[in-house]
Amino acid sequence: MLSAVAIPLVGAPLIALTGRFPNLREAVTLISGGALLATVLSLVPEVMAGGRPALVLLEIMPGLQLGLQIEPLGMLFAVIASALWIVTSVYAIGYMRGHHEEHQTRFYTFFAIAISATMGAAFAGNVLTLFLFYEILTLSTYPLVTHHRTPEAMRGGRIYLGILMGTSIVFLLLAVVWTWSLAGTLEFATGGLLGGLRETGQLTDAAIAILLGLYVFGTGKAALMPFHRWLPAAMVAPTPVSALLHAVAVVKTGVFTVMKVAVYVFGIDLLAESGLSDWLMYMAGATVVIASLVALTKDNLKARLAYSTISQLSYIVLGAMLASGLGVVGGSMHIATHAVGKITLFFCAGAILVAAHKTEISDMRGLGRQMPLTMFAFLIGSLSIIGLPPFAGAWSKWYLVLGAIEAEHYFAVGVLVLSSLLNIAYLLPVAVSAFFPGDGESGGGVHEAPLACLVPLLLTALACLALFLYPDPVLDLVRLIGEI
What is the pLDDT tens value at each position of the chain, 484 positions in all? Predict the structure, then answer.
């Protein structure tokens, strides 16, 4: 566990020191990524066998410590993040060189620090440790968001930092302190840390509703409306950063935190019996629909994908707030299925920028004749996000619908169906129109992005298919969450 946090953290200064030698710098990045993935995968068998390895890093006072512990949800998140770091790093090499980006060493250095923070969050053994790594992740990704140092980038960075730090300090930190005062501990517990306090009268229904709201809205990285504006603002960053934000680290840390708090702090039994998560289920449902409608209005491809991400993240919040076993399975599985689908779409957007220098959807008609592999991968990623078989997103949406039926929340079923129709409306026209005659034909034959950009997006598109055909490894893991 400690190695998983340390490997990218040790890799970061080595990347900085080799900055004058680009090939060596990128080799260090890829070696660090390979070592991290091997380390994370070595931990999977023990967790699947029921083990919950733990490590105390620092005892602040009796009952309050910084520590690591692996449970199934964190194991899933760590595998996704470590695997996609390698793919994103390969893609970044092609993108950063093909687009002639400056300050590439700084980019790879802070990327590694962000992955270290992500591993710490994934393996956090208690709420305090999760909060600490959550904040480190925010600070380490700020230089990535402001990478270009233009006035627009700096403005986007201020929104990014302001919303994420503001929500975590005002809401999330208050929730952490309140939990400590109520329970006398911050350790995650199967069945929920606060599960018994309602029965003894120590925790009223009003307090549960307020505390849950502080946790959910304090986790700004989950992008639940109205605390979502940081995500579109961060699209000023290079596309590999967008991929990091949307699939590998930042937003997934947000929804992972919401799911982990729901399962291991409150407990799904407490939430189901009290019904006090229902209001947040409605908030998540509203975010799903409203963000999808906004996505329909965006002509800039990255902006459309950003609002799509806001909508898709609320699927996971919705799954947690359903407070049902199948809802948790569906929401947790969506962390994986959305990751491979959305990273494919962002990789394609970056490849289009590098090869065709286009950012607006209205300019991409006919582009599929120049970039057939890229646009075909975009189609696969779109179908996965929509939730159509035989692609990964079909499984997570299926279990979310079953979870909503199990909890008798038919509003959520309607939201999921409506959202899928809106997904079709804002994603499929991009892919379909690319293969019809238009301005995109003017390039004179096939002209794909550099191989280092093309191969990763084809691999992640293939992963959308593979996760549908072979979902058992992910399903077996998420079914262990809270001993579901």
Answer: 999 999 999 999 999 999 889 899 999 999 999 999 999 999 999 999 988 999 998 888 877 889 999 999 999 999 999 999 999 999 888 888 876 777 888 889 999 999 999 999 999 999 999 999 999 999 998 998 887 788 888 898 899 999 999 999 999 999 999 999 888 889 998 888 887 777 777 788 888 899 999 999 999 898 899 988 888 888 777 777 777 766 678 888 999 999 999 999 998 888 888 888 899 999 999 999 999 999 999 999 988 998 999 999 999 999 999 989 899 999 999 999 999 999 999 999 988 988 888 889 988 888 888 889 999 999 999 999 999 999 999 999 999 999 999 989 999 999 999 999 999 999 999 988 888 876 545 445 668 888 888 999 999 999 999 999 999 999 999 998 865 4
Structural tokens at position 51: 């083990």
Query: Which residues make Cβ contacts (< 8 Å) with residue 151, sequence separation at least 6?
Result: none
197 φ, ψ to 5°? -75, -30
Q: Is the separation of the CB atoms in 264 and 71 below 8 Å?
A: yes
Q: Convert 145-179 to b/e letters by CB count within 10 Å (16 or more is b).
A: bbbbeeeebeebbebbbebbeebbeebbebbbeeb
pTM metric for this prediction:
0.92
- Output 137-142 pairs: Cβ under 8 A, ≥24 positions apart: 137/221, 137/249, 137/250, 137/253, 138/164, 138/165, 138/168, 138/221, 138/250, 140/110, 140/113, 140/114, 141/110, 141/114, 141/241, 141/244, 141/245, 141/249, 141/250
Q: Taking the chain, what is the end-to-end CA distance rounded to the nearest angstrom?
A: 24
Instruction: For residues 353 and 359, give the distance between their C-alpha atoms in angstroms, rounded to a whole number.
Output: 6
Residue where the block lists tokens 């975590």: 168
Q: How far apart are CA 287 and CA 307, in angstroms?
A: 10
Spatial separation of the C-alpha atoms in residues 88 and 240, rounded to whole Å = 7
Q: For residue 439, which phi and psi values (nearest 5 degrees)? A: -60, -25
DSSP state of 244: I
Cis ω on the peptide bond leading into residue 390 (within 30° of 0)? yes
In angstroms, rounded to a whole number, what is the distance separating the alpha carbons of residues 117 and 133?
A: 5
Q: How far apart are CA 118 and CA 303, in angstroms?
A: 25
Tokens for 259?
A: 């799911």
Alpha-helical (H) ranges within 146-199 are 151-167, 173-183
Give the CA angle between residues 221, 324, 52 to the nearest 5°.
70
